[in-house]
Amino acid sequence: MSSPSSTKPDTSAAAPLTGDGSRAVPAGKVKLPPVVWLLGAIAFIMGTSEFVVSGLLPEISGALGVSVSSAGTLITAFAVGMMIGAPVMSVATQRLPRRSALVAALLVFAAGHVVSALSSSLGLALVGRGAAALGNGTFWAVGAVVATAAAGPAASTRAMGVMVGGITLANIVGVPLGTAAGQLGGWQAPFWTLAALAVAAAAVVARQVPADSTRADSSLRAEAAALGHPRLWLVYLAIALIQAGIMAAYSYVAPLLTERAGLATTVVPLAMLGFGLGALGGTSFGGRVGDRQPYTTLIPATAVTAVLLGAITLWATSSVLAVFLVVLLGAAGFACNPIVVGEVVRIAGAGRSLPMALATSAFQVGIATGSWLGGIALTTSLGLKGPSLTGFAFALAALLPLGLLAASRRTTGAAQG
To answer: Average pLDDT of 364-392?
Structure first.
């Protein structure tokens, strides 16, 4: 389904050719439907849940009687739950109306937060995080398809920019507020709040998202066939490596800022706010230019991400410089996200839930791998330099699949010309 404005002949006639030979309408001329903004707001809730743990690791480790690196497994568990849950739930909900799937996802997400908030041991907290991640993965598997189908091919990257922007806004508002609430009212406070917001969001979805059964037009065989594009798997690899680079460092940003850069604990939420502001700028930029110049944006942004991670490793001993580098890391790293998701839509085709679910899994593979290996590096002789150095290696590695994708895109364009 495309927006009416995406079929105006006076706009599309002058539009450039896309990779499949069709003409693309400039994304900025397409008005996004309200459902896209609703899903972006829910992505805000999801993003706050995923990243708020990063700012509360000292409090969680103290309350549960485990090390900071062990508490960091709550981040890894969430990522693993989404990594597995997104494709599994995409298949499991194949015949369900999308509205029903979204409501169920939000209720499972809420239940997971209640379990975590009630836990007094790391094991039970991990169970809650896993359940919340399953709901989150289901939301992204279904929600991303709803958003891109509603926006149409001309604005698919922009629609994903709104959803990724919800995560980015979570870093600006949700994560700092959640971190502050966890420091003042106990680490469980943001978990209770997120559970309540998820239940409220489920009620809004039940009323505002149209009931449909359009998933029948995309059989499991057709979904699997869409995965046969080799370029799609290069995009998945790039997604995972970029995310691993960012999250290896960001998962341990609280101890980095307090123990290495000398910031007071109460200032950490402000530093994370700076990261979120940078990420918002990067997401907005990537969403705007991604449809026109994907790889001339992706490759430089990834290279800058690697440089920033190297700089954090070497020079994040000054509080001012450390915060500055963290802000820039958010901008460079998050500029990539809407673009790589837009590439999944272009290669696999709009409305394909399984390829989109695997894109979600690729993000979570990167988050889980980055946070896990960053935690291991933290316990070595590298100490607080370990996570950012690990991220530096991942970001450098991401340049290889991106380079191959850019080369194949130029080859395809030359052949069509």
So the answer is: 92
Instruction: Give bridge partners of residue 23 from the DSSP assignment.
Output: 17
CB atoms closer than 10 angstroms to residue 266: 11
Buried b or exposed e, range 65-82, using 16+ CB within 10 angstroms: ebebbbbbbbbbbbbbbb
In contact, 41 and 208? CB cutoff 8 Å:
no
Contact 327, 56 (CB under 8 A): no
From residue 303, give the alpha-carbon distance in Å to each of 202, 281, 390: 40, 17, 15
DSSP code at position 257: I
User: What is the token pair recorded at 92?
Assistant: 């499991």
Cβ atoms of residues 159 and 36 within 8 Å: yes
Structure tokens at 87: 């494709």
Angstrom distances, CA of residue 327 to CA of 268, 366, 379: 12, 20, 25
- Say which residues have a Cβ less than 8 Å from residue 98's Cβ, sequence separation at least 6: 142, 145, 146, 209, 212, 214, 215
Rounded Cα gap, residues 353 and 182, in angstroms: 35
What helix, strand, coil percent values describe the chain, rounded to 5?
Answer: 85, 0, 15
Q: What does the pLDDT look like over 215-254, one tens digit per residue?
A: 444 566 777 777 888 899 999 999 999 999 999 999 898 8
Per residue in 147-159, pLDDT (tens digit) is 777 777 666 667 7
Q: Distance between CA atoms of 155 and 221, rounded to whole angstroms?
A: 27
Neighbours of 212 (CB within 10 A): 12
Q: Supply the pTM of this predicted model.
A: 0.73
Q: Is the dihedral of CA 396, 369, 132, 114 positive or negative?
A: negative
Question: How do residues 71-87 score in pLDDT, each as one tens digit?
Answer: 888 887 887 787 787 78
Residue 26, Cβ density class (10 Å: 0-12 exposed, 13-18 middle, ≥19 buried): middle
Task: Determine contact, residues 249/309, Cβ cutoff 8 Å.
Answer: yes
Could you tell me which residues come within 8 angstroms of residue 208 by beta carbon, excluding any fewer than 6 positions away?
A: 34, 35, 38
Q: Are 362 and 216 in contact (CB under 8 A)?
A: no
